[in-house]
Design a protein that fits this description.
The protein has 278 residues and is α/β, with parallel strands linked by helices. It is built from 12 helices and 9 strands. Belongs to the 3-hydroxyacyl-CoA dehydrogenase family.
């Protein structure tokens, strides 16, 4: 998600710094941005001038403290683990300028809770993007208890400049889209577990029958099955039984089959030209 958000931000003309603990991941993200822009030009989705300027706007760093000290808007996109988000937001809060906004790309965690990790809760907000970021048009905006109107308005305008549509959602576990997506993805795993249909046919049915851009199993592999399981566990704890994770999903995560990032999830990505369900 971080690389996708950084790509869209830089392509929109914002000076953007992508921060990660891994230099190899940063280099991979940089190369991915170049390839994505080139594909966009070829398909007529990206202007040549935008693609040329992209690399002037996109920078990488492993130094969170220095990067945040020079930022007006910090968008945190680490995994949905409260302790990890707390560490990143506390660090950003300590080093960022007083006017800087701290946004979280959380899909489930309370922005009020996230704001409590900082000394500027009025400038903390949830800014939830969707995968793949350069394709999906929506950004959910969720304010915490102390988030100011000014902060929310700036996030609306920033998302608009990135070419996104926005919806403002009241703070509640899972917001709008994560609650629906988690249910659909979990039910798809139940159907796969029960032998209702193959993974390919479940995804094809949802895409062609319900007009989804991606099937729920494909989407799970894209965002990471561990991330999907984390979200479901959180919703199960906060909203109840209907979000209990499918046993097959738990089994895949235990086996290390996390999706695209590990080369294998519901589908096998060892040969990107031919996805084979195992």
């Amino acid at each position: 998600m971080g690389r996708g958000i950084a790509y869209v931000s830089a392509l929109s003309g914002f000076q953007t710094e992508l921060v990660d603990v891994s230099e190899s991941q940063l280099q991979d993200a940089y190369e991915h941005a170049k390839k994505t822009a080139a594909k966009g030009v070829k398909r007529g989705k990206v202007k040549e001038k935008q693609a040329e300027q992209l690399l002037d706007h996109l920078h990488t760093s492993i130094d969170l403290e220095t990067s945040t000290s020079q930022s007006d808007l910090i968008i945190e996109a680490v995994p949905e683990k409260s302790d990890l988000k707390q560490h990143v937001l506390k660090t950003a809060d300590q080093h960022a300028p007083k006017h800087a906004i701290l946004a979280s790309n959380t899909s489930t965690i309370s922005p009020t809770e996230l704001g409590s990790y900082t000394k500027r809760p009025e400038k903390v907000v949830a800014m939830h993007f969707f995968n793949p970021v350069h394709v999906m048009k929506l950004v959910e905006i969720i304010r915490g208890l102390e988030t100011s109107d000014e902060t929310v308005e700036i996030i609306h305008q920033t998302a608009k400049l990135m070419g996104k549509e926005t919806v403002e959602v009241n703070e509640f576990p899972g917001f709008v889209t994560s609650r629906i997506s988690a249910l659909v993805g979990n039910e798809a795993f139940h159907m796969l577990q029960e032998g209702v249909a193959s993974a390919e046919d479940i995804d094809k049915a949802i895409k062609l029958g319900l007009n989804y851009p991606m099937g729920p199993l494909e989407l799970g592999d894209l965002v990471g099955l561990d991330a999907r399981l984390n979200n479901l566990n959180y919703l199960y704890e906060t909203l109840g039984e209907k979000y209990r994770p499918a046993p097959l999903l738990e089994k895949y995560v235990k086996a290390g089959r996390l999706g695209r990032k590990t080369g294998r999830g519901v589908y096998d990505y060892t040969d990107e030209n031919e996805l084979i369900k195992r």
